[in-house]
Design brief:
Layout lengths: L6 E3 L4 E4 L2 E6 L2 E4 L10 E5 L3 E6 L18 H8 L23 E7 L2 H12 L3 E10 L12 E5 L2 E4 L7 E2 L12 E5 L2 E12 L2 E10 L6 H8 L22 E10 L5 E6 L12 E6 L6
Parallel strand pairs: 7-15
Antiparallel strand pairs: 1-2, 2-3, 3-4, 5-6, 6-7, 8-14, 8-15, 9-13, 10-11, 10-12, 13-14, 13-17, 15-16
């Protein structure tokens, strides 16, 4: 990597590029956010069993590799806000029920004790957990056939990409059916996609979509949207090198949990949609397609 003024490696994963400091996070290069504080964490749901937060984008759960960081982890922020839930016996100090990529914002559920973790895992394992995501993708996505809810079901396996870094994923064939030789150990992966709106982002055609993962493969939604030829805006791992985007436009919008215990629990949490013109004026919708009804 060059030491020129245009591109300079300042540390293990901080880069100076085009007069801006960037953070290399899980194969992506993003502008550094202002430092987050514990007070800024948005609580969507809280009980004696579960804590559901609106995770900011470009924020890791905890520091897996003890790398240089300019930002605290989500678990460090939770420890500051709710110190009485911290358990030093656990990796990162908290239970993990499911994960969000560091680049993804939105609903994340933290079990607050061992019992909560067990009943939460049961909900995910038994199909009683529904997750819904919103994304902005490049181009105008179109489907020839959808169901009565306006959803298109994509059933395409996902495997490891042997030519890239450790966590990169790919499909074993492209949308034309051509085999991708570097895809190894593919596993079944199903996603349901609904087109919500067409519009432009920074004057380029894009679509706003709702996505429901049926299976839970690593990077599943990002890889499936790439397979369709409409990668997520800002996803420099699986899409176009659009470094001008301040984030990867993927958001965990809603999480529904049905907990089957003696006293049944129905938990619903929704993280406000960040992809609206009032929040991001670069997104300009111009054609409504389907309602965002869940």
């Amino acid at each position: 990597m060059s030491n020129s003024k245009s591109l300079k490696l300042l540390s293990h994963n901080v880069v100076y590029l085009k007069n801006v400091y960037w953070y290399r996070s899980q194969f992506t290069l993003k502008k550094l956010q202002k430092c987050l504080t514990a007070e800024s964490l948005q609580v969507l749901y809280k009980s004696k069993h579960f804590l559901i937060l609106n995770k900011p984008y470009d924020l890791v759960l905890y520091d897996y590799h003890k790398t240089f960081r300019t930002q605290k982890t989500l678990f460090e922020l939770i420890k500051e806000k709710f110190p009485y839930y911290f358990d030093p016996r656990l990796t990162g100090g908290f239970h993990v029920l499911h994960r969000l990529d560091s680049v993804t914002s939105g609903c994340i559920c933290i079990p607050l004790n061992y019992f909560s973790q067990r009943i939460g895992f049961d909900a995910f394992r038994n199909g009683n957990a529904d997750k819904y995501y919103i994304a902005l993708v490049h181009g105008h996505l179109k489907f020839e056939q959808v169901d009565s809810d306006g959803m298109f079901e994509l059933d395409v396996p996902i495997g490891e990409d042997s030519t890239r870094l450790k966590y990169a994923r790919c499909t074993p064939f492209d949308i034309s059916g051509k085999k991708i030789e570097n895809c190894v150990q593919p596993e079944k992966a199903i996603s349901r996609v609904k087109i919500l709106e067409y519009g432009t982002y920074k004057s380029k055609d894009c679509s706003k979509v709702l996505i429901k993962p049926i299976t839970g493969r690593r990077h599943q939604l990002r890889v499936h949207l790439k397979y369709l030829g409409h990668p997520i805006i800002g996803d420099t791992c699986y899409g176009i090198d659009d470094f001008d985007s301040y984030r990867t436009m993927l958001h965990s919008y809603r999480l529904n949990l049905k907990i089957n215990t003696k006293n049944r629990m129905f938990i619903k949490a929704m993280a406000p949609d960040p992809f609206v013109p009032e929040v991001d004026p670069d997104w300009r919708p111009n054609c409504f397609v389907n309602k965002l009804n869940i």
